[in-house]
What we know:
About 45% of the residues lie in helices and about 10% in strands. It is α/β, with parallel strands linked by helices. The protein has 4 domains: about 5-175, 3-Layer(aba) Sandwich (Rossmann fold), CATH 3.40.50; about 180-240, Helicase, Ruva Protein, domain 3 (Orthogonal Bundle); about 245-360, Zinc Finger, Delta Prime, domain 3 (Up-down Bundle), CATH 1.20.272; about 385-525, DnaA, N-terminal domain (GMP Synthetase, Chain A, domain 3, 2-Layer Sandwich), CATH 3.30.300. Helix 8 crosses helix 9, helix 9 (about 200-210) runs parallel beside helix 11 (about 235-240) and helix 12 packs antiparallel against helix 13.
Amino acid sequence: xxxxxxxxxxxxxxxxxxxxxxxxxxxxxxxxxxxxxxxxxxxxxxxxxxxxxxxxxxxxxxxxxxxxxxxxxxxxxxxxxxxxxxxxxxxxxxxxxxxxxxxxxxxxxxxxxxxxxxxxxxxxxxxxxxxxxxxxxxxxxxxxxxxxxxxxxxxxxxxxxxxxxxxxxxxxxxxxxxxxxxxxxxxxxxxxxxxxxxxxxxxxxxxxxxxxxxxxxxxxxxxxxxxxxxxxxxxxxxxxxxxxxxxxxxxxxxxxxxxxxxxxxxxxxxxxxxxxxxxxxxxxxxxxxxxxxxxxxxxxxxxxxxxxxxxxxxxxxxxxxxxxxxxxxxxxxxxxxxxxxxxxxxxxxxxxxxxxxxxxxxxxxxxxxxxxxxxxxxxxxxxxxxxxxxxxxxxxxxxxxxxxxxxxxxxxxxxxxxxxxxxxxxxxxxxxxxxxxxxxxxxxxxxxxxxxxxxxxxxxxxxxxxxxxxxxxxxxxxxxxxxxxxxxxxxxxxxxxxxxxxxxxxxxxxxxxxxxxxxxxxxxxxxxxxxxxxxxxxx
Length: 539
């Protein structure tokens, strides 16, 4: 006999065998017992949690020769044929491959024929949300007033895609994800029945990786059973699924607690060199801090909310003493922000490294070895010719060693916010923006890159506000340490021969700087963007 995969071999055959859905099975059993049967059912929920299995069990319960019974016998002809998928009275339809109006018209015609030998003619439509709108509409009348011997059972993973007119004609049952504890218990029982040696940590790792799907958990266990006749360990699960070991997560979070940024980078590099999924790493880190938060708030009283083996929980209880609740919450905020920043940068590594740096250094604190040597000479900025031709131009210091780059004159850009009475105008600052960021880039390229995401937004007295869009929150916050703000302020003071106080602000009415016409046309033609607009003089 050919091998039967565990997911099929241990598929539930009665309502009592369905795992983790007692709120559904109890209601169905009571409906059958009291003969309160609907003509159409809609089973909703994630994949692999028992929707199709419950549909088949319901079909057996209704057509069992010893029923209708909430506990079908499983041995009569009807039960056997339904279990084998060969019953003429129970028709299973895949909504993904039979989604057109022609298939529904055929179904409508076949509905007119009475069942062969069962009580009911039952249609089980899986992934019903895949049907077209026309197909749904063609089914409406039949679904509302079907023959008394016809029952419909729909199953879907995306109930929001099912037309409301269909949902309103069905009894809706919402299936839920199976808990990690329930999956673990089920896997242990099946492993024992199959004579598989699996340790507790491996079972827990499988249950977590399945994300609430018992079928996925059985598939993973099936794969692991082929690896070796020896005991399946957590390391086997991690290796097969490409997960990040719990030890690495503890090393990273402990390094953060000890404010050891170098250790964070070393562990992160080790993880990446092993080819681990950095997205999964980030999810694991956030989950880890969530567990620390729960334990910090409730101690052992809330430890049941932490989905880890006892040994790992004990490690969490020890580590939580190295954190304050404020530090844990801040870490969660920082790593959640990394996920958003990575969407913009198409990279997780750099934002993740910045996150570790932010968590291991106090705001405004930079170790001496990271502080660039301060220049004693006043900062000189190459200024383009067009600035000198503007009305009310400023006297800029020009680096004679660097060539002055001539650029075509452009129309004055609109002023966002400006207060009268300042010696320097906001318009002049906006026109000198490229020269300012170029000067900053010669000292710290990263600062210029982040600053480029903003724009001079408001000048009130000598308080200059640089505005950033909401999606550039990460860039704004990266500029707010004491050393960086000192650099930015120094450049403005040197450029305009006046003392400025520079502030950074997130704003909803952000208006980005316009590029030169030639640059703008080129970017539009090739669908590109400027990533570095500074030339390096003398290089």
